[in-house]
Amino acid sequence: MRTHRWFVPYLLLAPAILWVVVFSIWPFLNTVVLSFTDARPLRTPQFVGMENFARLLADERFGYAMVTSLVYVLVCVPLLTFLPLGLALLVQRRLPGIAVFRTTYYFPVIASVVVVGIIWAWVFDTRGIINESLAFTGLTDEPIEFLIDRWLILLSAISLTVWKGLGYYMVVYLAALTAVDRELHEAAALDGAGAWRRFWTVTVPAVRPAMLLISALITVAAMRIFSEIYVLTNGSGGPGGQAQSLVMLIQLTGKGLNGNLGYASAISVVLFLLTIGPLALVGWINQGGEIREALTQRRRARAARRTPAAQRGAGAAGRVEAGEQ
User: Fold this and answer.
1) pLDDT at residue 317 above 70?
2) According to its record, what are the GO cellular component terms (predicted)?
3) CATH number, position 196
4) Cα–Cα–Cα angle for 71, 69, 169, nearest 5°?
5) pLDDT tens digit string along 178-208?
6) Which of 56, 117, 152, 271 is the 20 to 30 A CA-CA neighbour of 15?
């Protein structure tokens, strides 16, 4: 007779659960605790309450990092949400040579961001291909210092991020476009709808979940930008650190024997709150209808259970009154 080993599923899940606890949950909780202390390496931390968070408001470096990250989000989200959709629609047409085009645009995705960053640094250097081309055509007399000016550094880094991410998000949209029924396009065309109207009324609603997911992923990735700016500025964050991102500021604040781990942890908590918001919003938008429907069904079930009880109570009261009469 075979006995049911109830513990086997839990035993199989134990390694994954242990991994998540050790490398995700515990570091996160430890970071939250450290954010309320003045922790430094080789020193016993002391509780300082909200002092680290109050210090953020007066820290000029934190202000620069916030602006950098927010600008990155505001520029990258629309570009990497709509440009890949246009490329996916182009690839879907199966034009001659489109397979080469698809492979070419996906190649940056598999390339190391550090390698791509080094190549980008050469391209935007004062003696790089862009400045040499501008000088050759006579558009500029002096080389443009793309990697010295704060805003030009951001422009260079954003162009790198967009170029590297186009292929990946194009593939995501291609997968979403396979769910679009061709008959809907044909029916809309028979009704007199043009290509632009069919795009907004048929294609966009079909890829809306993928579009929301991509927007959330880009927002999170843009808020956590690090490698692109770090490589382009050789780790300095630009002039006076004005082009630093939040992750760069965390790394520079907490590293070394003199690193302020408590303050770096406070910045990390703020970054976590900024990145969890878009994910929660997308989850609510995607699942909001199902959640509302479940709540409505639950209220109806409760009302249905109350109705027979109320009817029985009314019937009993009626019988009592009849007996008294």
Assistant:
1) no
2) plasma membrane
3) 1.10.3720.10
4) 80
5) 877 777 777 777 777 777 877 787 888 888 8
6) 271
pTM: 0.78
Q: What is the CA radius of gyration of the chain?
A: 29
47 within a domain of the structure (yes/no): yes
pLDDT tens string 75-114: 999 999 999 998 888 888 777 777 777 777 788 888 888 8
Beta-carbon-side half-sphere exposure of residue 313 (alpha carbons within 13 Å): 6
Q: Which residue has the higher pLDDT, 36 or 9?
A: 36
Domain-embedded: residue 98: yes
Query: Does 36 have pLDDT greater than 90?
Result: yes
CA distances from 95 to 99, 103, 141, 146 (A): 9, 14, 42, 37
Q: Determine contact, residues 145/152, Cβ cutoff 8 Å.
A: yes
Point out which residues pair with 37 in neighbouring strands. Answer: 47
Alpha helices in the chain (DSSP H): 8-20, 26-34, 51-58, 60-92, 98-110, 113-123, 129-136, 150-177, 182-190, 195-198, 204-223, 227-232, 246-254, 261-324
Rounded to an integer, the average pLDDT of 256-270 is 89
- What is the identity of the amino acid at 284? W
Q: How far is CA 293 from the centre of its chain?
A: 27
DSSP letter, residue 39: -
Our count of domains for the chain comes to 1
Torsion of CA 273, 274, 279, 280, to 10 degrees: 50
- Which residue has tokens 């918001």? 277
Specify the pLDDT at position 62: 92
What whole-number distance in Å separates Cα of residue 228 and Cα of residue 234? 10
Name 60's Cβ contacts closer than 8 Å, sequence gap at least 6: none
Per-residue HEC secondary structure of 141-205 comes to CCCCCCCCCHHHHHHHHHHHHHHHHHHHHHHHHHHHHCCCCHHHHHHHHHCCCCHHHHHHHHHHH
Whole-number pLDDT of residue 187: 79
- What contacts 147, CB < 8 A, 6 or more positions away? 121, 124, 125, 153, 156, 232, 233
Examine residue 148 and state whether it is found in any structural domain, yes or no: yes
**Is 190 domain-assigned?**
yes
